């Protein structure tokens, strides 16, 4: 097949949507499909364009058998709500001439990744004029999240919701990454015949439990008998990581408990300021780790912390959960049982669920987990089993490819 992928984030971004889009494109190309990608220079999660690229230049390159067109992008380190919209709009506009060129390629299917929703009109135009099928894959309900988090004024909600529904219904298929997000699609009027579950995955051969302590413990000077609570991933508003710092403050006089925050994002500077104000001597900061060190990082944890605000429930599905489970470590998650995170945690029996935005409840759950190492071991075994049975890269992508081929064949 000829497959055109259109999205804001792509490899070599090490985390989030760019990671998954890159792995998907490389997997398709390795199986003989012709894959083209229209995207931006890598900038996430640091919100700063990689120094090997230029934010204002067009660039064409080949990576893993994939043809890539990178388009100019406006990026600000800590954007306001309006500036986030301008950021998304800059790519939607700069990519217009490149997408118009792709019409002549006559792809079998055009796949657009949300965010950015601003790109969906051009994806539909390219597909219809090029005789292609149109597929929308939703990683985040960015418009809903923007309203819930106060980035866009709620007085615009009716207009935006109607526009979103009209555009979304125009696609031949709409996929998203969790059952909870599929339910939200149904609420938006998307017929079941168009819906496809396409969850994020993990390379279970690259992320796996070590049978010895992670080498990073010695590197960081962490004693073997200390309990490490690790948060690794993007640091944005929807995580609400302040609650984890409040819990770390409750542990400040308890030896042998260490909190590690690894990653980057727009919220990190504010989090560092808060940590300085609290004078947290039991907290370590790490930058994003390269892929070859990711398994050592995830095995550094005695307990993984999956922190999410209640307002973000089922608007986004944190991709970091797949790696946590594959590493064979227990998880404490701030989510309600009826959310997708809650359902996965319950099905996997891999740790503790805590109500979001409640530091005392999170502290109590961690106290229970820290004091019961045998239970932590069992939860870790369960986590690994669930990842192997449900989240493997090959099984998820193979199942999705069947849906893609079916769509192309019947057009």
General description of the model:
The protein is an alpha/beta fold and 411 residues long. It has helices spanning 17-30, 81-94, 96-102, 120-130, 142-148, 157-169, 179-187, 215-220, 242-250, 268-278, 294-298, 320-326, 340-348, 359-370, 373-390, 393-409; strands at residues 2-6, 34-39, 59-63, 66-70, 109-114, 133-138, 173-176, 195-197, 227-232, 257-262, 283-286, 303-306, 331-334, 351-354. The strands form 2 sheets. It has an 8-stranded mixed sheet with strand order 3-4-2-1-5-6-7-8, with helices on both faces. Helix 9 links the parallel strand 9 (227-232) and strand 10 (257-262). Helix 12 packs across helix 15. The longest helix is centred in the last third of the chain and has 18 residues, at 373-390. It is globular and about 65 Å long. It starts with a strand and ends with a helix. The model has no long low-confidence stretch (mean pLDDT 91).
Can I get a quick summary?
This protein is of the alpha/beta class. It has helices spanning 17-30, 81-94, 96-102, 120-130, 142-148, 157-169, 179-187, 215-220, 242-250, 268-278, 294-298, 320-326, 340-348, 359-370, 373-390, 393-409, and strands at 2-6, 34-39, 59-63, 66-70, 109-114, 133-138, 173-176, 195-197, 227-232, 257-262, 283-286, 303-306, 331-334, 351-354.
């Amino acid at each position: 097949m000829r497959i055109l992928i259109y999205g804001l984030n792509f490899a070599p971004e090490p985390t989030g949507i760019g990671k998954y889009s890159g792995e998907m494109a490389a997997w398709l190309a390795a199986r003989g499909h012709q894959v083209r990608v229209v995207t931006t220079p890598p900038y996430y999660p640091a919100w700063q364009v990689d120094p090997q690229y230029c934010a204002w230049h067009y660039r064409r390159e080949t990576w893993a058998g994939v043809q890539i067109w990178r388009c100019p992008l406006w990026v600000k380190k800590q954007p306001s709500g309006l500036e986030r919209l301008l950021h998304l709009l800059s790519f939607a506009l700069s990519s217009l001439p490149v997408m118009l060129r792709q019409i002549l390629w006559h792809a079998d299917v055009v796949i657009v990744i949300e965010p950015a929703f601003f790109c969906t009109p051009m994806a539909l135009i390219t597909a219809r004029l090029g005789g292609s099928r149109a597929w929308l894959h939703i990683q985040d309900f960015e418009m809903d999240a923007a309203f819930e988090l106060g980035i866009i004024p709620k007085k615009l909600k009716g207009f935006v919701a109607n526009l979103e529904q009209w555009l979304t219904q125009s696609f031949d298929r709409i996929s998203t990454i969790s059952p909870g997000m599929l339910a939200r699609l149904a609420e938006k009027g998307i017929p079941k015949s168009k819906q496809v579950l396409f969850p994020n995955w993990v390379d279970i051969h690259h992320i796996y439990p070590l049978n010895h302590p992670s080498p990073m413990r010695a590197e960081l000077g962490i004693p073997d008998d200390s309990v490490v609570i690790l948060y690794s991933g993007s640091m944005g508003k929807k995580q609400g990581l302040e609650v984890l710092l409040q819990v770390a403050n409750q542990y400040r006089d308890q030896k042998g408990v260490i909190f590690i925050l690894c990653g980057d994002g727009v919220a990190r500077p504010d989090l560092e300021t808060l940590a300085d104000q609290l004078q947290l001597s039991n907290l370590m900061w790490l930058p994003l780790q390269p892929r070859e060190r990711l398994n050592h990082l995830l095995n550094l944890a005695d307990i993984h912390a999956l922190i999410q605000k209640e307002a973000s429930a089922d608007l986004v599905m944190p991709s970091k959960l797949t790696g946590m489970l594959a590493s064979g470590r227990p998880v404490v998650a701030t989510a309600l049982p009826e959310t997708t995170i809650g359902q996965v945690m319950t099905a996997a029996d891999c740790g503790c669920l805590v109500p979001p935005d409640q530091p005392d409840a999170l502290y109590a759950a961690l106290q229970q987990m820290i004091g019961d190492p045998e239970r932590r071991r069992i939860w870790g075994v369960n986590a690994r089993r669930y990842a192997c049975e449900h989240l493997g890269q090959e099984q998820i992508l193979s199942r999705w490819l069947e849906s893609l081929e079916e769509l192309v064949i019947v057009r």
